[in-house]
Write a structure and sequence with these properties.
Elements lengths: L5 E2 L4 E2 L4 E2 L4 E2 L4 E2 L4 E2 L4 E2 L4 E2 L4 E2 L4 E3 L3 E2 L4 E2 L4 E3 L9 E3 L4 E6 L2 E4 L2 E4 H14 L4 H23 L2
Parallel strand pairs: 1-4, 2-5, 3-6, 4-7, 5-8, 6-9, 7-10, 8-11, 9-12, 10-13
Antiparallel strand pairs: 14-15, 15-16, 16-17
Length: about 160
Amino acid sequence: MADKARVSGDAWVSGDAQVYGNAQVSGDAQVYGDAQVCGKARVFGNAQVAGDAQVYGNAQVSGDAQVSGDARVSGGARVSGGAWETSPLYIQGTRHAVTNSSYGFLNIGCIKLSFSEWKKKYRAVGKQQGYTVEQIKEYGTIIAFATKLGKKEKHGK
């Protein structure tokens, strides 16, 4: 299959950075350092991908977002600048990662629910997913922390 990667507009790629596959970098986006953008990934707007970061799959990085260091953005993930005042929360639990995918919502593994839904349903979801009693307690603690932090973040307190 031929490489159909595109860099267009005022976007630029420098250093040892690579854009390949069907990836697209456009607008005023910057990809530099040893960063990689591949697959069907898109980087656009004023977004920056730097360091050893990788953006791949169907992921999109846009707006004023910055992805750097050893970060990986993959699958259908969307990272857009201006959406968060600080980096989104990521906590690796025993079985699955917990992330705040958007204001008021948490993803645990592949399940996305609102803060209030997680508070009500985490025990039932844990049982359905085959979690042990200890793991259910662990995720209950993480959910309590993440929802408290998430509400503060949204209101800027």
